[in-house]
């Protein structure tokens, strides 16, 4: 189809989602179990140089217990997410995966950053189904500038390896990074088209006051929406999540618009324990973005209903895989 303007892109994105993903949307329950990180990414509040950040690590039992609570609420995917934190050794992560899987029939997604390749293998053998690792930007120079000491090639190789050993693989980018160009975003979309990730997580840049990028403007919501829509068009049946940072950037209806115009079909509510009132301190506060707005399960359900989609009751495995898992 010949896309003339943004409205055409949005109409097409929703049409493509309907054709390839049907009328169901998926909820993945996320446990943010550690906000320690050995990386120093310029855009992230969890970067190791940020000494003002209050850090937490959950113990194994707490993580398993939160994973089980998610399953008991009828959500069939548990996402275990942390900064890159070697405190959680291969053995510890494998135990957590096994303990949740023994108790509940759920899919497990890991989002732990880059690890040793033998770790990936062990996590897969322990029963983890998916691995989410955003590529952040396909501009090599920008990647190295934003992620000191890191190479884009290593990340892309890791994604390839994860796929090779049987993980459903998730990539993703940041829209509106300082120094990013429209061409860079086009390259991200071309990467999505070529790699065809099983899942994609797109989010805006949000300046964190405790990072070197604190005075740069946040990413544009409208531009991000176009990235979502074009990504849906070129990836067809990939699961595409409207990240919680979208809700931070546009709290009123950001995620809903990502569904109504951008062709999203996944939400990933935060399932860490919430305080009973706004005044109470959050015990495990991830805060990679400032004042990050965490959408809970109820709110995620409400967004999906407003988008006139049904909430999927199954594990919502990759639509790119053939046959049963
Ligand atoms: S984006 Fe992830 S890897 Fe980078 S500093 Fe933040 S938590 Fe660490």
UniProtKB/TrEMBL annotation:
<dbReference type="InterPro" id="IPR058240">
    <property type="entry name" value="rSAM_sf"/>
</dbReference>
<feature type="binding site">
    <location>
        <position position="44"/>
    </location>
    <ligand>
        <name>[4Fe-4S] cluster</name>
    </ligand>
</feature>
<feature type="binding site">
    <location>
        <position position="37"/>
    </location>
    <ligand>
        <name>[4Fe-4S] cluster</name>
    </ligand>
</feature>
<keyword id="KW-0408">Iron</keyword>
<feature type="binding site">
    <location>
        <position position="111"/>
    </location>
    <ligand>
        <name>(3R)-3-methyl-D-ornithine</name>
    </ligand>
</feature>
<dbReference type="InterPro" id="IPR013785">
    <property type="entry name" value="Aldolase_TIM"/>
</dbReference>
<dbReference type="InterPro" id="IPR007197">
    <property type="entry name" value="rSAM"/>
</dbReference>
<feature type="domain" description="Radical SAM core">
    <location>
        <begin position="19"/>
        <end position="243"/>
    </location>
</feature>
<dbReference type="GO" id="GO:0046872">
    <property type="term" value="F:metal ion binding"/>
</dbReference>
<feature type="binding site">
    <location>
        <position position="136"/>
    </location>
    <ligand>
        <name>S-adenosyl-L-methionine</name>
    </ligand>
</feature>
<keyword id="KW-0411">Iron-sulfur</keyword>
<dbReference type="InterPro" id="IPR024021">
    <property type="entry name" value="FeFe-hyd_HydE_rSAM"/>
</dbReference>
<dbReference type="GO" id="GO:0016740">
    <property type="term" value="F:transferase activity"/>
</dbReference>
<protein>
    <submittedName>
        <fullName>Biotin synthase</fullName>
    </submittedName>
</protein>
<feature type="binding site">
    <location>
        <position position="155"/>
    </location>
    <ligand>
        <name>S-adenosyl-L-methionine</name>
    </ligand>
</feature>
<keyword id="KW-0949">S-adenosyl-L-methionine</keyword>
<dbReference type="InterPro" id="IPR006638">
    <property type="entry name" value="Elp3/MiaA/NifB-like_rSAM"/>
</dbReference>
<dbReference type="InterPro" id="IPR034422">
    <property type="entry name" value="HydE/PylB-like"/>
</dbReference>
<keyword id="KW-0479">Metal-binding</keyword>
<dbReference type="GO" id="GO:0051539">
    <property type="term" value="F:4 iron, 4 sulfur cluster binding"/>
</dbReference>
<keyword id="KW-0004">4Fe-4S</keyword>
<dbReference type="Pfam" id="PF04055">
    <property type="entry name" value="Radical_SAM"/>
</dbReference>
<feature type="binding site">
    <location>
        <position position="147"/>
    </location>
    <ligand>
        <name>S-adenosyl-L-methionine</name>
    </ligand>
</feature>
């Amino acid at each position: 189809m010949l896309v003339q303007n943004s409205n055409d892109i949005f109409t097409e994105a929703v049409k493509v989602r309907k054709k390839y993903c049907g009328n169901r949307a998926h909820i993945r329950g996320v446990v943010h179990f550690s906000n320690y990180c050995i990386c120093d990414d310029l855009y992230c509040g969890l970067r190791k140089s940020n000494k003002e950040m209050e850090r937490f690590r959950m113990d194994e039992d707490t993580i398993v217990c939160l994973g089980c609570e998610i399953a008991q609420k009828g959500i069939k995917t548990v996402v275990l997410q942390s900064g890159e934190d070697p405190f959680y050794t291969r053995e510890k992560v494998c135990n957590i995966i096994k303990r949740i899987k023994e108790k509940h029939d759920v899919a497990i997604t890991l989002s732990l950053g880059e690890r040793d390749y033998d770790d990936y293998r062990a996590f897969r053998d322990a029963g983890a189904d998916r691995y989410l690792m955003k590529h952040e930007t396909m501009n090599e120079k920008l990647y190295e500038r934003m992620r000191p000491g890191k190479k884009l090639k290593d990340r892309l190789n890791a994604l390839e390896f994860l796929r090779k050993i049987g993980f459903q693989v998730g990539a993703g980018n940041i829209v509106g990074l300082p120094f990013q160009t429209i061409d860079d975003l086009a390259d991200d979309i071309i990467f999505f088209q070529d790699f065809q990730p099983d899942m994609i997580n797109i989010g805006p840049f949000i300046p964190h006051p405790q990072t070197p990028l604190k005075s740069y403007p946040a990413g544009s919501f409208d531009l991000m929406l176009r990235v979502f829509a074009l990504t849906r068009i070129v990836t067809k049946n990939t699961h595409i999540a409207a990240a919680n940072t979208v809700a931070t950037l546009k709290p009123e209806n950001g995620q809903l618009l990502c569904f109504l115009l951008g062709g999203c079909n996944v939400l990933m509510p935060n399932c860490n324990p919430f305080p009973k009132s706004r005044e109470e301190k959050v015990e495990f506060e991830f805060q990679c973005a400032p004042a990050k707005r965490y959408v809970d399960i109820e709110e995620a359900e409400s967004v999906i209903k407003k988008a006139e989609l049904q909430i999927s009751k199954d594990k919502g495995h990759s639509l790119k895989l053939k046959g049963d898992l």
